[in-house]
């Protein structure tokens, strides 16, 4: 059990006048000090899009670029809406930091980040076409490929 403000499901929304806080797991507004039995600690250092964040950082893009914004929304609205999607996100939080660390140590990090960016761009195009199952399959394939490379 933990406080929602420290939970991976917790995010802040703007309401022009008031800041509101929401729980993407329960799809409802919450108090910043609420706690829940489904608490999953936020990964350190950002929103949890480890591979994509590292990639767009490497490419020189902003944290609020189209690619990151699209994939974060997909994660929070589509993946977190199902038990299996939430499980994939949770597993990703465990394995992705190690993959990024190993990519950064690699002599071929340029090739890996270009591969990730191509996959990300393709996923964003699929999101725009509302082909969500294809997005999920493409991103999972990328993560599995990188996991095998860096096990």
Plain-language structure description:
The chain has 151 residues and is an alpha+beta fold. It has two domains: 2-36, no CATH class; 50-149, no CATH class. Helices cover 56% and strands 13% of the residues. It contains five helices and five strands, in the order E-E-E-E-E-H-H-H-H-H. The protein has helices at 50-59, 66-78, 83-105, 109-128, 132-149, and strands at residues 2-3, 10-15, 18-23, 28-30, 35-36. It has a three-stranded antiparallel β-sheet, with no helix packed on it. Helix 1 packs across helix 4 (109-128). The protein starts with a strand and ends with a helix. The relative contact order is 0.13. The mean pLDDT is 78.
Itemize the secondary structure elements and their pairings.
Blueprint: E1 2-3, E2 10-15, E3 18-23, E4 28-30, E5 35-36, H1 50-59, H2 66-78, H3 83-105, H4 109-128, H5 132-149
| SSE class | alpha+beta
**Count the strands?**
5
Share in helix:
55-70%
Which band does the percent of strand residues land in? Answer: 5-15%
Number of domains: 2
State the shape: globular
State the end-to-end distance: 31 Å
Stretches with pLDDT under 50, minimum 5 residues: none
pLDDT average, as an integer?
78
Q: Please give the largest β-sheet.
A: 3 strands, antiparallel
Helix and strand pattern: EEEEEHHHHH
Cα radius of gyration in angstroms: 16 Å
Task: Please give the count of helices.
Answer: 5
Instruction: Tell me the strand order in the biggest sheet.
Output: 2-3-4
